[in-house]
């Protein structure tokens, strides 16, 4: 009887150790790993309310070639941004504007250089560092990302809430 208890106890201990060895940090939602992503995003630029905005979004593709659609609260399309190497385009208000890069386009659109390349990584749960930015991915499993631009001034806060 005592030998079978020890054996059962040893098996239980081995099982617990094996499971503990398999434990890992919470993973982002499945859709956050592969995209496309949709939800709400907000950018607040300190001391510049005209450069701050909030919109619904759908993001497809990659940092190299992709598309970002921005929507009003009632679902109307505010803007469509698309990019590929050497070219980026903004379609808004029945006008199309061309830019040399997605970074130049984002700066023109928002007044703040949003790190699009890193944003794709952040959505996948990869904490890619960007000079001047601090990203908080601790709530990604709950569909939330926060990033703050500290340099260059003015400071800017980027918040993303993914749809479930």
UniProtKB/TrEMBL annotation:
Keyword RNA-binding annotated: no
Membrane topology note: Lipid-anchor
UniProt-annotated location(s): Cell outer membrane
Domain of life: Bacteria
InterPro entries linked: LolA/LolB/LppX (IPR029046), OM_lipoprot_LolB (IPR004565)
Gene Ontology biological process terms from the UniProt entry: protein transport
GO CC terms, sorted: cell outer membrane
First and last residue of the signal peptide: 1-25
Keywords on record: Cell outer membrane, Chaperone, Lipoprotein, Membrane, Palmitate, Protein transport, Signal, Transport
Family that this chain belongs to: Belongs to the LolB family.
Subunit text: Monomer.
Protein name, UniProt field: Outer-membrane lipoprotein LolB
Protein's organism: Ramlibacter tataouinensis
């Amino acid at each position: 009887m005592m030998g079978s208890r020890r054996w059962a106890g040893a098996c239980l201990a081995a099982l617990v150790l094996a499971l503990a060895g398999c434990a890992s940090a919470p993973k982002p939602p499945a859709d956050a790993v592969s995209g496309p992503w949709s939800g709400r995003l907000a950018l607040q630029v300190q001391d510049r309310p005209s450069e701050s905005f909030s919109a619904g979004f759908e993001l497809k593709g990659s940092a190299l070639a992709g598309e970002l659609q921005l929507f009003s609260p009632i679902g109307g399309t505010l803007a469509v941004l698309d990019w590929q190497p050497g070219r980026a385009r903004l379609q808004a208000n029945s006008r199309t504007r061309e830019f040399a890069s997605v970074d130049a386009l984002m700066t023109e659109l928002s007044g703040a250089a949003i790190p699009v390349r890193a944003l794709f990584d952040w959505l996948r749960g990869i904490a890619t560092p960007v000079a001047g930015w601090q990203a908080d991915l601790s709530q990604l499993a709950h569909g939330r990302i926060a990033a703050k631009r500290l340099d260059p001034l003015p400071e800017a806060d980027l918040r993303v809430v993914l749809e479930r």
